[in-house]
Amino acid sequence: MTIERVGVAGAGTMGSGIAQLACLGRHETFLHDPDAAALAAGEERVRAGLLKGADRGRWTREEAEAASARLVAAPRLEDLSGCDLVIEAAPESLGLKREVFDRLAAACGPETVLATNTSSLSVTAIAAEVERPERVCGMHFFNPPVLMRLVEVVPGTETDAEVAGAVTALAERMGRTPVRAADEIGFIANRCARPYSLEGLRLLGDRVATVEQIDSICRLGGGFRMGPFELTDLVGVDVNFEVAKSFWEQSFHEPRWQPSPIQAKMVAAGRLGRKSGRGYYDYAAGPHRADDPEHDPPPANVSEWSGSEAVGLDPATQVAALERIVCQLVNEAAFALGRGIGSAADIDTAMRLGFNYPRGPLAWGDAIGAEGVLSVLDRLRSETGEERYRSAPLLRRRAAEGRRLAADA
Ligand code: NAD
Questions:
Q1: In 296-324, which positions are buried (b, 16+ CB within 10 angstroms) versus exposed (e)?
Q2: Is pLDDT of 193 > 80?
């Protein structure tokens, strides 16, 4: 299956970044948006992004100009008819995406691969009513696509192996790192990242530590680029709440994914994060915090955290705030591995490249030791009586067998 011409349907934040990558991957790239102003703005973003990258030394000026010359603005969806592969990056609505796929299937040849950049909808559901659903596949980029190297390749139940292979090869030509994810809620990265904000909210709700303390513990103690609350402010408190509700509903109320009343209260108060000037932090007066001091890399060992983290240590369980977050991240990744959401290597790669985690959660679990993670979870479960701390069967098994987590079955 040869992919030469690439189409991108939707020229917004994601579509324009994806089109830039396709141009850089030496593909003639047709960028479509039904909104003329959005198409013009998207085209401008691609061209400006290519020049900016050349200024920063990411590629040469000649490469930028050659890539720019490969971009074609397509005012009508039907203008994508000659493409070998089309990536849909239209708004996140099942009805709208199904309509786009229907029209693409009618306009393009039967062999054209149709990919979707959806983050939260089922690829299988998008493909269900398309003629030849075997040529539909998920191709999930991260924001901003030009800087984030991860692409999740998500075959639906009908997707042909050759089609998934063509999507993987295209991601590689775009200079990305593809991983293979199952078509389940949140794929790999968004799913395995759930505990970061939710466990932060539980620590806050349990009054173990303040917003500022939890964020700085994650940055300084854990090596994360941002704490859960400042990250939520950046994404949008309302957006984060909608994602949380969607996981909860789609999973028929999985206890690990239960949203927090704190989120509902913040949204009701209009504290939506940076975009509204106020979220967990106040942005009216400029930067929300001072720069962090230089610090050593975080310890891998649970006992070191417990000893050093005077702030955020729960006297009842002797579990430190960071241990709680990291052990829940390891647990979620162990659930994902046990359920075949991705391979061990792909799960760790997805979290490092999709969310800049300092280490993959399974490798992190191995550094702590599966038994250590299990002991933290068991203490939390026994103290709180909550199902959300139940351990993944795979974690328990590997701890008993003394086997590594970052290894496939
Ligand atoms: P966006 O609102 O920036 O862009 C969407 C574009 O689609 C707009 O320009 C709009 O005019 C256009 N559009 C509307 N109807 C269309 C149609 N019928 N056909 C083609 N285009 C149409 O949205 P975005 O953030 O770029 O998100 C696009 C998709 O990417 C969504 O499915 C989203 O879930 C997914 N995604 C977003 C992010 C992110 O962080 N923004 C990350 C990964 C995936």
A1: eebbbebeebbeebeebbbeebebbbbbb
A2: yes
DSSP 92-144: S-HHHHHHHHHHHHHHS-TT-EEEE--SSS-HHHHHTTSSSGGGEEEEEE-SS
Q: Is the CB of 104 under 6 A from ligand 1?
A: no
Q: Please indicate whether residue 98, judged by its CB atom, sits closer than 6 Å to ligand 1.
A: no
In the predicted structure, residue 307 carries a pLDDT above the cut 90? no
Residue 3 and residue 170 in contact, taking contact as beta carbons nearer than 8 Å: yes
Distance between first and last Cα of the chain? 31
Strands in 327-393 per DSSP E:
none
What amino acid is encoded at 404 in this protein?
Answer: R
Please identify every residue annotated as catalytic.
Answer: 119, 140, 152, 190
Q: Render pLDDT for 114-138 as a digit per residue (tens, 0 to 9).
A: 999 999 999 999 999 999 999 999 9
Give distance in angstroms: CA of 19 to centre of ligand 1.
Answer: 13
The rounded Å distance from CA 397 to ligand 1 centre is 42
Query: Is 33 close to ligand 1, i.e. is its CB under 6 Å away?
Result: yes
> How remote is the CA of residue 13 from the centroid of ligand 1, in Å?
7
What one-letter code names the amino acid at 104? Answer: L
Cα–Cα distance measured from residue 115 to residue 6, given in angstroms and rounded to the nearest whole number: 11
Q: Can you give the length of the chain in residues?
A: 409
Residue-wise pLDDT tens digits, 361-371 = 999 999 999 99
